[in-house]
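During data preparation, we tokenized the protein backbone, and the record follows.
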Amino acid sequence: MTDFRDAVRRATAAGAALAGVGAATTAVNALSMRSLRRPTSDVPGSVAVCIPARNEVDLISALVADLRQQVHCPTLQVFVLDDGSTDGTFEAAVAAADSDPRFHVRRSTTEPPAGWTGKAAACHTLAGQALAGRPDCIAFVDADVRLSAGAIAAAVSELRRGRTALVSPWPRQQADSCAERLVQPLLSFSWLSTLPVRVANASTRPSTVVACGQFLMFDARAYRDIGGHESVASSATEDLDIARALRRSGHRTAVVLGGELARCRMYDGWSDLREGYSRWLWSAFGGPVGSTAVLGAAALAYVLPPVAAVFGSGRTRRWGLGGYGAAVAARLVADRAASGVVGSGAVAAAFVHPVSVLLYGALTVDSFLRSKTGSITWKGRPL
């Protein structure tokens, strides 16, 4: 029995140490990461913005309106592809564009080619149209993103300032339902707490890449050099994989905070969230072995310490309390950096961080099961 208690104490101490390192890393990143800044002058060169949209009738009009209000980007062209929607997305996009000559709205009724995901195929089609105009920069923006005036110019400025091939502004993540507040902050927490971002942004190592497909700004020449989205045709995580392809070609990529210029509500409630995560979690860590290792480390750092704090005693309990406190602090700091504000819902979610980690693990298992049975779908289309 004594040996078992010693093993639990050592494991709790190790988990608390991991949580402490995570809290320190999060604090350093929150203090040192760059954010998009409102531009004060026009950016040089031409910019093409591509929007793949499938069944986005409730969202597309607002994004088109945002893009029509962009400033300091005098040569902006916007390309919208209605990717086989069944809900009036095309008509909504056309109405929102209101004959603006900078906007080009197309409709596609063909399914993705064999070996392609729907989003990669839509982005490839859009890029073919956009690159015909030989833009200097090409961006891809999801329909659920909201952009303040100047966001596109700010992303171009950040791309050129850092001399990178890709800048990925991380939009402020909105989470309104309980399920969203529990799970969504883990996306930014996962890299804010584990990766020294300023160091990673200066690297070309594919293993340290961070990218968010909600908003990607590419140097057009670098994008063409790697074959664009054709290089990630079958990927369920095409945003990360296209950034890795750039790094393997010797280019640098960078993630920055969207600040006040970009925001996104990625999912709407539990059902939408579950469908979204099941689409890609099975591939997120290189397969079952990688996922088991990541989830095991997360459980050690963020589940064992609070359990020990409640049920342990003596040094085990003290280690548990320390680890739990570090995790809560890291979650709050990460949420403040990624979302801009920390409301009462975010505070409550931080204090039940172990529940978030367990729920994330359950979603990962669910994703693997759906992948094995071929039952993964997104926007009404099987993957």
